[in-house]
Amino acid sequence: MFFVSVMLVSCGEESIEVPYVPVAKVSSYEKDSVRTLMGYGDKGLSTYDVFINDAKVSSSAVSYSAGKIYCMIDGIAYDINLHNTRGGIRVETVHAATPEGARLFNVEYWYDAEGRLEMARVDGVATIPVYCHYKYENNTIIVDDFGTDYILNLSSEKNIGYVCNVLDFSNAPITSTYVINPNLYFLNIYGVPVEYLPVGQTVEFSGSNLSRVGKYYYKY
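Predicted structure:
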């Protein structure tokens, strides 16, 4: 099952056409002792409930307005600014702060001609801005994460429903923690997802849906 992304644009600006790629409606994903339950409304993902060892540690609603998405997950407030687009939606900047409003980090995003994530700039995690670059070559993705290259080889297995955050499997620390936040992945904001799964991962199915890719487990 798929959900429709909401087009959120600002008035008075010329919008750009971007590819719309539906992401399957995942209701729960798990990694180690952390489980996140997600609810959906008319505009898309609407609630987050985060559990650690089956104890609830965070509950948040997701709010949408013109050009913005806002949510708070496990004590971090995410103010997500979107490009003015037609078709799909994609993030322009993410501002992360404490509940009191103190800045934690900011991320700015750029995309290639095919709508895939091409570069990100992260501020607030080092004494200088951190840049990450993503290069797609045949069945390989080269992740330049703050000057270190991580090679991510892809299999022939399809990323069914695009539920797998494939770039996370590069093990590039800035990318996996800040650039593509696993909790925000299912907002479908990071441009065109990676079509194939990484090599060397255990892959399991529930019917026609992916139920596991490596360290992640999914329910629908």
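Summary: Residues 1-11 have pLDDT under 50 and may be disordered.
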